[in-house]
Amino acid sequence: MRFVIVTGMSGAGKSTALKMLEDMGYFCVDNLPIPLMTKFAEMMSTPDAEVSNVALGIDIRGGQAFQNLEKNLKQIDEIGIRYEILFLDAGDDILVKRYKETRRQHPLGGDGHIDRGIAREREKIAFLKVQATYILDTSKMLTRELRLELEKIFVEGKDFKNLYITVMSFGFKYGIPQDADLVFDVRFLPNPYYIEELKPKTGNDAEVREYVMDSEKAQEFLVRLTGMIEFLIPNYILEGKNQLVIAIGCTGGKHRSVTLANALYEFLGKKENYGVRIEHRDIGKDAITKAK
Q: Quick one: angle between helices 69-79 and 37-45, nearest 10?
């Protein structure tokens, strides 16, 4: 039996993840009273249970009993039942935004302050994050991207290193992304903007990609960039980093940065032990600005 405990920050996507796991053939139970957790694990592990994959949702809604969760997990260990912990997380600003959008009350935000409720929750569930088998930061994930990551881990059985990478192109004239961990400037490369037939196109178009990557500087930059990223990623993982945002910028975020971001994304996409997504933040802003 594969026994997965799904937990994490309220608002990070636990309920969504459980629904996805159910679609993947897991028998899912959400918010089971914590005192029943050990008995449930024993019952599911018996030969006649006829259940091969189980996902159990546990979170701060367990109330006072939540403080006994660590003891329950030790009991399950002592019985000899193997379990995995999937911990879903997101940045505080993202969680606040999600709560405001849904107009829901945070379970620990009794005074009406969402941020205080989040802080209290982080403190109470810190031990779970330390023990987690998998940590997924959903701050930048779309629903379909979360599903892909869950499929990799719980269906395809791929090795997972608890790191989700966002490769982002941007335009310096619109500002450097505030959440970027690494920022690279490619404004030194030949600019398709000054080629009449390439000006209206973007780095997603083959003609622009060929023009940019035909430069020896672009080729060398990509080799050096991928080499640096390959060196950095294992060290970020050792540090315990769960999310990495790599931002590549040019003047308007439409041609050169998009081309190089796509190239890096393709390189990282061949790796199977961490998630990666692409985002072109400013690719359409030039057209919007001109229309105004």
A: 30
Nearest alpha-carbon partner for 129 in 2, 7, 275, 4: 7
- Per residue in 205-241, pLDDT (tens digit) is 999 999 999 999 999 999 999 999 999 998 998 888 8
Q: Has 9 been labeled as part of a binding site?
A: yes
Round to whole Å and give the CA distance between 233 and 96: 29
What are the phi and psi torsion angles at 33 (to 5°)? -55, 130
pLDDT of residue 269: 86
2-154 has which fold?
A: Rossmann fold (3.40.50)
Q: Does 45 count as an annotated binding residue?
A: no
Give the residue carrying structure tokens 């080799």.
223
Q: Is 61 annotated as a binding residue?
A: yes
Tell which residue, 193, 73, 181, has the closest CA to residue 127: 73
Q: Any binding-site annotation on 275?
A: no
Residue-level pLDDT at 292: 47
Asked whether residue 20 is marked as a ligand-binding residue, the answer is no
Count CB neighbours of 282 within 10 A: 24
Query: What residue spans define the domains of the chain?
Result: 2-154, 164-291
Residues 267/94/286/277 CA torsion (nearest 10 deg): 10
Collect all residues with Cβ–Cβ distance below 8 Å to 202 and sequence separation of at least 6: 208, 254, 255, 258, 280, 283
Q: For residue 8, say whether it is annotated as part of any ligand binding site.
A: yes
Does 15 carry a binding-site annotation? yes
Report the distance separating Cα 253 and Cα 120, nearest Å.
39
pTM reported for the whole predicted model: 0.73
CB under 8 Å to 242, separation ≥6 — which residues? 89, 135, 136, 137, 162, 163, 164
Residue 179 tokens read as 């959440």
Classified as helix, coil or strand, 253 is coil
Please indicate if the annotation marks 60 as binding a ligand: yes
14 labelled ligand-binding: yes
